[in-house]
Amino acid sequence: MMNYTLGKGNYTNWIVSEVEFSPDTLGKCESIMYLGNGYMGMRSTTEEPYLKETRNLFVSGTFNKFDEEEVTELPNLADITRLDIRVDGERFSLEFGETSEYVRQLNLKTAELTRSFTWTSPKGKALRFHFRRFVSLENLHLIGIKMDVESLTHPVAISFDSGINAQMSNSGSQHFHEGERRIFDKRFVQLIQTTIQSKIDIVMNTAHKVAVNGVEVNEPVMNMDRRKVWLSFDANLDPGDQLTMDKLTTVYTSRDKDFDHPEYDLSKLREHSLEDLRTSYEQGYEALFQAHQEAWSQKVWNAYNLEVNSKDNFDMLALRFAMYHLTIMTPAHDERMGIGAKALSGEGYKGHSFWDSEVFILPFFMYANPKVAKSLLKYRYLGLVGARKKAAENGYEGAMYPWEAAWPTDGEVTPVWGAVDIVTGKQTKIWSGFIEQHITADIANAVHQYYTITGDHEFMDQYGYEMIFDTAIFWASRLEWNEEKQEYHINQVVGPDEYKEHVDNNAFTNHMAHHNMQLAIHYADVLKEENPGRFAELNERLHLDTAYPKWQSKSEKLYLPQPREEDLVIPQDDTYLQLKEIDLTKYKNQEKVGSLFNEYNLEQVNQMQITKQADVVILQLLLEQAFSAEVKKANFDYYEPRTLHDSSLSLSSHAILANDLKEEELAYSLFKRACEIDLGPSKHSSDHGVHAASIGGIWMSAVLGFAGVRVLDGKLRINPNLPKHWDDMKFTIYWKGQPVNLTITQTSLTVKAENKETIVFETYGNTYECQDQIEINLNK
Amino acid sequence: MMNYTLGKGNYTNWIVSEVEFSPDTLGKCESIMYLGNGYMGMRSTTEEPYLKETRNLFVSGTFNKFDEEEVTELPNLADITRLDIRVDGERFSLEFGETSEYVRQLNLKTAELTRSFTWTSPKGKALRFHFRRFVSLENLHLIGIKMDVESLTHPVAISFDSGINAQMSNSGSQHFHEGERRIFDKRFVQLIQTTIQSKIDIVMNTAHKVAVNGVEVNEPVMNMDRRKVWLSFDANLDPGDQLTMDKLTTVYTSRDKDFDHPEYDLSKLREHSLEDLRTSYEQGYEALFQAHQEAWSQKVWNAYNLEVNSKDNFDMLALRFAMYHLTIMTPAHDERMGIGAKALSGEGYKGHSFWDSEVFILPFFMYANPKVAKSLLKYRYLGLVGARKKAAENGYEGAMYPWEAAWPTDGEVTPVWGAVDIVTGKQTKIWSGFIEQHITADIANAVHQYYTITGDHEFMDQYGYEMIFDTAIFWASRLEWNEEKQEYHINQVVGPDEYKEHVDNNAFTNHMAHHNMQLAIHYADVLKEENPGRFAELNERLHLDTAYPKWQSKSEKLYLPQPREEDLVIPQDDTYLQLKEIDLTKYKNQEKVGSLFNEYNLEQVNQMQITKQADVVILQLLLEQAFSAEVKKANFDYYEPRTLHDSSLSLSSHAILANDLKEEELAYSLFKRACEIDLGPSKHSSDHGVHAASIGGIWMSAVLGFAGVRVLDGKLRINPNLPKHWDDMKFTIYWKGQPVNLTITQTSLTVKAENKETIVFETYGNTYECQDQIEINLNK
User: Fold this and answer.
1) Which residues of B touch A595 (CB under 8 A)?
2) Percent of chain A with pLDDT over 70
3) Which of B280, B335, B353, B637, CA to CA, is 20 to 30 A from B310?
4) For residue A448, which of A354, A553, A560, A366 has the smallest C-alpha distance?
5) Percent helix, strand and coil across chain B, each to the nearest 5
6) Which of A159, A161, A178 to probe by mutation at the B interface, max B CB count within 10 Å?
7) Is B527 exposed, middle or buried (0-12, 13-18, 19+ CB in 10 A)?
8) In angstroms, what separates the C-alpha of B604 from chain A's closest C-alpha?
9) Helix, strand, coil shares, percent, chain A, to 5
10) Mean pLDDT of chain A
11) Does the pLDDT of residue B590 top 90, yes or no?
């Protein structure tokens, strides 16, 4: 049972908690309460094991391919969270005995996971357990785990096994060679794993401090088994006695920037990582935790500074939840790494980056933390290697970004086979890696947005221009001439709506491709003017002089699906509007996404007006100036009823557009539903990990949606339209590198330029210049 | 809680059973009740999952090496035993609710595993469960599983998932590529796995028949996930309703003889295996089980025909238990395969063959089923390839058999690193693969024994001579000349007692090496005489004319440790008798073998008079004519108190020797202890699998020990000396290819030559010729 507003005092609206233990819904808490710091992510699996648990520890960027038939993925590292606890010789488990005062909670403010309860063993002995855990934001390599056990009623013998267990796998695929295991000084346990294909070394070190009433217990028994090393501790507790265990762990890899160089030497990595543990061990759990908490205050909460006063506390919690997750999912420390679609919280989507990053997550960083946005776009810049490879493999020119991306040079890594096809009994083929091509334009557009918001010339010179040009070169080579219509088409694609495969002229794809080429024309003009040297250099490599006229002629003749005369509906593709319609009521009210596929296979769904997620609707958000409010409304009204929101990316887009269309009630309810994708009561939707894009969407719904912050024609526009439930809202964004504080109420907008540089923006049609602070009456 | 004599009526002394469910001792029943047929072995893991379970399915000979750093092993195949059962939506588990009338039993006679109980759910609904399972001896590729559930008290919703799960691994090492999964006709589920290094294809097919009161339930939901395919069934039961599920599975591999040829084609294997399932499915569970049971009667119980009337029923059960396991562990169908030290019952020892096969298991087959003995020796003949490779790698000539053997051509496959060294914190190095060399002589001696017992000239011509000669050639090259003593030594070895590493002149090794060369001399003489053509051929390949004089001169000058004058004790090696002694009481009474290593590391144990297992004692059994009764007694009395029996091979050897020495009480108690290695109360000793050699030793203790059946100087000798507890004993052995029935009482021996050919044998010093039947008064 989830309870979201347990926090009191300083922690009001900071606590995500579970107040009743349930072995059937372990996955949910493991995912949504997962801990991390962008370097690594660790599922919040309970210390004691349960059958349906999933234990995961991922380090960003450590991709490995199990074999030639699988795609590369983030491997599941050795586990250090499991404790096999025995009470009077019997396995401790909350499935036995009686549990009371149970609370498991994630404190978003301190990024700490705690769990406490009183447990009475089947033999009637009562014990009080308290667990704590953090993954440090101060030292990215550090994990702390703490257990306190007090005997309440009887003398009791307690024992537990704890160590490092590398028998883990990714659903059976083992990414690691069994490496060396070693116990130094009978205390410092070290285990090495090396990925079997990418040959990345992982070194983990762990050490325990186990005491009863502050007195350290006897030396543990040392054990090694295949891929495992562990210590066995035991102690006898009289009533009132307190057993404490502090377990500190460091995780290092040969992919860490400090070690990923030609002189790399495993023995140095081992020494360094062990030394870090020894030093941390000296400092002790509490001091390390304090430093971690301080880092969260400074780097996250004080920086983003977002507050919402809502009649429903859940809204503030959901926004904090979003910022917490946006922080821990993002490898801000290393531009060679992207964000996984399931963040670092589960095996789902294998740690791969999708368009989710650019369309649903980057907006947060572009506005709120541009340095990180830059790092994420540099990841795509490095990914040009893979994108060019993919283009060449497909017979195209330029850069064709992979639908799913892992290590930047990998190119396309989308798996080819998916779930069972209920008609044929075979696995369904996944076409996205071949024909879901809009991502290339999505990335180019993100570069444009980033530049518009930040004014980061340096980025454009070094990376951005090249990305926009080479993606436009791809599109120019991709277009297909239709002799009959005397125009260019883009045939045989999948748009954002993946329930329509092999369609011609998907509206989203065509418009975005067109936009991509238009951006290239625009920036070519700009660059030629502003930095002819760089232009010349890129021209030499990319042949811009040849490309430029093609962008012009081809984008001009590219067919762009337009609103139909009769009802202003833009055809999602050449055939969608002619497909048959079925009653979608039961699938709209489904408990688990994708319920449709228990009755139809994808081939059949392809033949019906059923949409997985926003397609035309998201187009109308990304290129909002291209469509009138009337057209937007017509398309929202047409497509939403046909959309199952089977993708977690869908609801927040609809929420923003609904708010734009002044459908405030609907917008707020869609925002709520978007928040509930991970935070809601659905028991299993987060089992394979949190929904990174949906989490970005929570923030977008609030800031781009309710606060109405957008970029239009290169200008900042702020059209606030808070939900009725919200009294006010404040947050900091960066505009052209300057922090700007916004405070919004139902009737006013206050803009404060923190650095006292002039900020120009538009609100409801009026342009304002603000050098210090300005308050605007919204007169709603 | 184990109960061994539950069987009644026809099944008296045929049943191994557990009468109380315990989640902490799952491993024991999984192992000792495992099912198999030599082609495959399947642990008897409960259908519903538990945390500490181990699910294993092994197919003989399908060795694979996970990577260059691991040794080849039998991979754990996809699982078909697990059923995820939900009652009213909640996980069914005997850890919850109330269980009564619980019995899990292995019926040795029918080779069927059953489990039944009444379970009352936490909500108070009572259900009666009955499970059955067999691995067919009639169709080696077939597995049958059956579940019956009756609702006793309330209407209840029952659902379960069942299919093929290839997320299994060997303690984390994944041996398989993820292969194709397919569901034919919404019923026949097929999953393919291919080993990643040896490229063996495994095809498994499964089909269900699920009915309520005989009426088949609705189509199940089909599911696929990574490495998994399964069906979800559900049904509603009213009180009295009976749900039945029959699940039939076929397992085929590209290593099967029928498919392991150059024209092999996976699609044909798939078709054939699926066709076998379809045919079996037509026949149905009951008919298939009947055929299986019939095969056990004919091929096993009626063939071996062993009966013991003991005051303790356990003795007969233990002997049946031994014959059951000797049958299912042995790949009698394929001479390219040997017997694993843990049979096919667990990951322990990786499916590798040790000297266990020749010294502790082959005697059973040589006497009771010579065809199978021949197949096992042919496995060693094929292994000459690997043995020659090993000799060459070590700078020796001839054939040096690997300490651990897998696929015959693999050569040495002993892993190099073992358990933790409590002093250094590193893994302990395992030296056996390098320097435990006696196995080469053990195999040569087994060939000699086989020939003596069977008179199988053909085998000798084709295989046996070559094995004996080439092993002798190895030994001649292995000996080291000691200038000072003017004799040959064998230095730096490990004998059977693995607690003494790097010793010089291990008595067992030196004597057996000498014996090996003597056998070669003898058989060279015989062959030259009897089959000069074959001799010439072998001479050309093995240069026997050069080897022969070396065997003579070297074996003559090989130092053979002799009884000391003062106490007749034969020094186990050059230093043993000078080592310090410690009080071994607590280790002798240990609950778990190897407890010594919680206090000492191997280096320290090396320096003390502590023996892991019979060393000089087993030498005195294998070469019994070489030592007088007096010497045997002196050595038994000296070494036994210093022996921890930390190897399961030890007790039966001691039992036989004790009986020879007329220490009948001791012999009987050692026999009991040998039986209890797997069948006894120890909770965890069988977790990693049964003890194949110890199981062979149970039979040896009875037939070679109490019945006194031996070969001495090429002659059959029968000196029975039954334990006081035994009234009589009968069994069939084969002598020179002829079946001979023996009946032994406390006072008589009756020998019956079944084929009426003359059998010559000796009993207590007198020679008898028996053509029909002879009864001898033992006059004890």
Assistant:
1) none
2) 99
3) B637
4) A366
5) 35, 25, 40
6) A178
7) buried
8) 17
9) 35, 25, 40
10) 96
11) no
Q: Which residues pair with B745 in a beta bridge?
A: B728
Asked if A555 and A487 touch (Cβ cutoff 8 Å), the reply is no
- Distance from C-alpha of A767 to C-alpha of A757, rounded to nearest angstrom: 16
Strands (E), A174-325: 176-184, 188-195, 201-212, 215-216, 221-225, 228-237, 242-253, 307-310
The pLDDT-based confidence of A2 (bands split at 50, 70, 90) is: low
Residue labelled with tokens 């809680």: B1
Rounded to an integer, what distance in angstroms lies between the CA atom of residue A586 and that of residue B764? Answer: 88
Q: Is the pLDDT of residue A433 over 90?
A: yes
Average pLDDT estimate for B431-452: 97
Q: Supply the ipTM of this predicted assembly.
A: 0.94
Q: How confident is the model at residue A593 (pLDDT cuts 50, 70, 90)?
A: confident
CA distance B108 to B102: 19
Is the torsion defined by CA of B69, B75, B77, B81 positive or negative? negative
Of B167, B221, B419, nearest to A224 by CB-CB distance is B419
Supply φ then ψ for residue A471, to 5 degrees. Answer: -70, -40
pLDDT of residue B614: 84
Q: Give the tens place of pLDDT for each residue, A725-751.
A: 999 999 999 999 999 999 999 999 999
Q: Outline where DSSP puts E strands in B126-258.
A: 126-135, 142-151, 156-165, 176-184, 188-195, 201-212, 215-216, 221-225, 228-237, 242-253
> Is the separation of the CB atoms in A13 and A32 below 8 Å?
no
Alpha helix (H) residue ranges in A344-455 = 356, 362-368, 370-382, 384-393, 432-435, 439-454
- Please give the CATH topology (third level) of the domain spanning A60-84+136-303: Beta-galactosidase; Chain A, domain 5 (2.70.98)
- Report the distance separating Cα A431 and Cα A444, nearest Å: 22
CB B205 within 8 A of CB B189: yes
Alpha-carbon distances, residue A121 vs A157, B43, B92 (angstroms): 12, 32, 21
Is residue A218 scored above 80 in pLDDT?
A: yes
Q: Mean pLDDT over residues A227-250, rounded?
A: 97
Per-residue pLDDT of B493-537, as tens digits, reads 999 999 999 999 999 999 999 999 999 999 999 999 999 999 999
CA distance A173 to chain B (A): 6
Interstrand relation of B228-237 and B242-253 (parallel, antiparallel or unpaired):
unpaired
Residues of B with a known catalytic role: 498
- Rounded-to-integer distance, Cα B171 and Cα B31, Å: 16
Is A172's CB within 8 Å of B173's CB?
A: no
The tokens of B692 are what? 């194949």
- C-alpha A156/C-alpha A125 separation (Å) is 8
Sheet holding A766-770, edge to edge: A709-712, A715-718, A759-763, A766-770
What residue segments make up the domains of chain A, in order of their start?
60-84+136-303
Query: Which residues in chain B have their CB less than 8 angstroms from residue A173's CB?
Result: 174, 178, 226-227
Nearest to A169 among B96, B172, B221 (CB): B172
- Averaged pLDDT score across all residues of chain B: 96
pLDDT for B7 beyond 70: no
Q: Say which DSSP state B25 is in.
A: G
Reported as a single tens digit per residue, the pLDDT across B308-359 is 999 999 999 999 999 999 999 999 999 999 999 999 999 999 999 999 999 9
What span, in angstroms and rounded, lies between the C-alpha atoms of A242 and A226?
33
Beta strands in A77-169 (DSSP E): 84-87, 90-91, 98-107, 112-120, 126-135, 142-151, 156-165
pLDDT tens-place string over residues B74-123: 999 999 999 999 999 999 999 999 999 999 999 999 999 999 999 999 99
Q: Smallest Cα–Cα separation from B34: which of B364, B329, B360? A: B329
Predicted local distance difference test score (pLDDT) of residue A3: 59
Q: Is the pLDDT of residue A141 over 90?
A: yes
